[in-house]
Amino acid sequence: MQYNRIYNFNAGPAVLPLSVLEEVKESFMNFSGSGMSITEISHRSKNFEVVINDAVSRTKRLLKLDGSYHVLFLQGGASLQFAMVPMNCLPDGKTADYVDTGTWAVKAIKEAKILGKNPKIVVSSKDKNYSYIPGNIKLSADAAYVHITSNNTIEGTQWCNFPDAKGIPLVADMSSDIMSRPFDSKPFGLIYAGAQKNIGPAGVCMVIIREDMLKLVPENLPSMLKYTTFSSSNSLYNTPPCFSIYIIQLVLKWLEEIIGGLDKMEAINKEKAELLYSAIDSGGFYRGTAEPGSRSLMNVTFRLPTEDLENIFVQEASKNSLGGLKGHRSVGGCRASIYNATTLEGVKALTDFMKYFEQKNG
Ligand SMILES: *Cc1c(COP(=O)(O)O)cnc(C)c1O
Fold first, then answer.
1. Per the domain annotation, does 3 fall within a domain?
2. Is 159 a catalytic residue?
3. Do the domain assignments include residue 133?
4. 64 in a structural domain
5. Which of 224, 259, 294 delimits the end of a domain?
6. C-alpha to C-alpha distance for 238 and 231, rounded to whole angstroms
């Protein structure tokens, strides 16, 4: 394999398209004929303005966002958004509905509580180890927003159809599945995503926020914690993570120009996931942990007959250039993260190895 690269199934930071990495390599020494590395140019330069504006335009085109949305690039990861969302968009005296579908949802709820806000857990799938996405959710009529986690990275579940919030803005943590499929953006008041799963490297979080949500931002917050600070400055209030934003721009260009948009991306993602889930379901050796109707197209979680076998599986896979298959430390088992940049070839290599391992140990 070129550059001795392995098949990378890490959950995050995660695999990036090879063509993007090759372009980064060039611009790392001399960006766009500037005679400087992309990491050496000013965030106030024309060159960087082109980068950030292109990343914003491509995001708007790919997600078909109308003119009422702002695309921002913030630091602090998705984890800071757990606090910024209620800080900015949950007025005192109001409540917000939270859907508890796993570890990251729990963390979002925790931050809202720390702020003395009033998050209301309207439903939880904790009763079955977060192995499913709840249906028939009763939402409050007076909530400021409804918070969901579109893809549960650790538990391997994903919303197939988003809940009908009846006009109340949906707020979604899309860290691990943004840009993996098309969806109707209109019900969403705010979307946030740490870049390091599906759209870039660590160090930047994409926030997509609608005008009406910006109107809720209180005046008396520190500048760096206010969405309006970034919406009024094109994310250039202070020095942004330029290098990370640049890589996002290239990933979005790859999505539009090489893949051909989110419909195409979704078809590829479905093909990869189906291949992997059918390898899991084909015998009694592997067992998927998510309920079939809630299975994630991004993070495929599964168990083997014993923990010992799981450890050997991860080790042997690694010797065969298949990396990152250990499940999250909080849940154990195995997990293959098959984000946008994971190739069908990589998934085939994994399923071939799974068949071989089953024959040897089953
Ligand atoms: C990884 C992840 C986070 C945490 O992201 P950070 O950028 O590390 O703060 C939050 N939510 C989801 C769904 C994730 O997958």
1. no
2. no
3. yes
4. yes
5. 259
6. 12
Q: By residue range, what is the domain housing residue 207?
A: 21-259
pLDDT digits (tens, 9 = 90+) for 311-351: 999 999 999 999 999 999 999 999 999 999 999 999 999 99
Quote the pLDDT of residue 283: 87
- What's the CA gap between 198 and 251, in Å, rounded? 9
Measured from the Cα of 205, ligand 1's closest atom is: 7
Q: Specify the pTM.
A: 0.98
Mean pLDDT score of the chain:
97
Task: Provide mean pLDDT across the span 271-288.
Answer: 96
Q: Whose CA is nearest to atom 12 of ligand 1?
A: 175
Ligand 1, closest atom to CA 150? 13
Is 173 a catalytic site residue? yes
Residue 311's H or E segment, with its range, is helix 307-319
Percent pLDDT > 90 in the chain is: 98
Q: Total domain count for the chain? A: 2
Distance 194 CA to ligand 1 centre (A): 6
Phi, psi of 182 (to 5 degrees): -80, 150
The first and second tokens of residue 347, run together, are 């998934």
Give the residue from 259, 292, 307 where a domain finishes. 259
* Domain containing residue 312: CATH number: 3.90.1150.10
Token pair listed for 327:
């499940």
pLDDT at 1: 52
Could you tell me the distance, in angstroms and rounded to a whole number, from the CA of residue 192 to the centre of ligand 1?
10
Active-site choice (97, 100, 173, 177): 173
Q: Residues with beta carbon inside 6 Å of ligand 1?
A: 12, 77-79, 104, 149, 153, 173, 175-176, 194, 197
Q: Please list the residues that pair with 157 across neighbouring strands.
A: 152, 295
Q: Which of the four pLDDT bands, split at 50, 70 and 90, describes residue 362? A: confident
Look up 254 and say whether it is catalytic. Answer: no
Domain of 149, CATH number, reads 3.40.640.10
